[in-house]
Predict the 3D structure of the following.
Amino acid sequence: MSRQRGRGRGTAAVARVSAVVCAALCAVALPGQAWAAGESPYEFDDEAKPVKGAVSNSDAQSLAAGSVYEDTIAKDGKLYYRVDLDDRTNAYVSVVAVPKPGGKAEYGDGIEVSLQDGSGTECGSEDARFESAGYTRPLAAYAHRTIEPGETDCQKQGAYYVLVERTSKAISTADDWQLEIRHVAEPALKAAGPTDAPDSWPSSSPPPPAGGPQKRTGGTSFHTATGLTQGEWRDDIKPGQTLFYRVPVRWGQQIYATASLGSSSAGSKYIGNALVLTLTNPAHGHVDQKTASYDGRPSQMSLDPKPPVAYENRFDSSGEVSAMRFAGWYYLSATLSPELAQSYGDKPVPLTLRINVDGKAEAPPAYDGPAGIFQVTDDDQDAAASGQSGPGAARSDSMKLIAASGIGAGTVLVLGLGGWMLLARRRAGAAAPQSGSQQYGPPAGW
């Protein structure tokens, strides 16, 4: 009887240790279900939570800083959300509108995001429109509350309200649009800095990056955007497809981007606004957008030169300058018109991106708290160089943790078993076992 009890304790102890180790490793190693394909090719952030926008600000649900949410908006819909802000932190609420692929859009269709205080005073707003490229694709815009010296509106602590409005023409596709909503906080400065935005900056395009094209496949969303560094990057894009990329830009640096479509032998029909290239800042605020036509011959377009990233850019009245207000990941999205499929077929068209990041990196502003996404770390640079997306970089970090955990857990298990054997031998030597009652397994105290 005592033999069975001793063996049972030993088995249970080893099982408990194994379970703890396995649980720790599996918790790190197993991915979530966010990789499952949805109705839209746009891959939402796997940490997005469901939220329901209200028709009145009085019923608005709260959006927590640092969180991501999902919702839908109907044609010509208006939705309210609530954010609770202090009197020191800059706040950004971005919305990515995701229509179903292949829908029709008219000039002026799009979304507007605005942030209001409790009295209805507008603190900031931005819109994103399809403009002359009349086909649906993801659109991103943000609204922000910025703490500014000498200002009185929107500076107090309290409840603020985010209004998301969708504008559509009568002949536009009436399907609901999915929304990906983010609330991001930027810490205050320890001391007030300069508030004069630059009135000039280097505007001549730098020479093409050296080294020749390298293959890099774009992601399907902001969340899965593929990392790029300065260089020439080759991809393939299908009609109606949107590809996402991300580039780390440090304080004091400028980003230049050129997109080219390769030639095709399948046809020569002229298609205006065949390619749309959009630049978005780290908080998913719109920076710039350009289009290029296509007639089967090589076609190219470049974004306008932007000022170096600087904190004081936020005080400029121009949206393109103001959006270059912080360091971090800047996003490029490229969309190819679905109209190309009618004349050139469904096969992908060669896409080349040429990226330049110019300027010497400068010291970051003296934030009174962690910079969060508004910085470029060494890990970010490594992720860009290896072409990792956000989830890819997270998996890489997880693998490092798994390796460390595996080594650590194995060491602990071996040491624990060694200690158990030593303790068992000492106890066996201290007390002679009675006849027929020999005990096996770990000490009775386990």
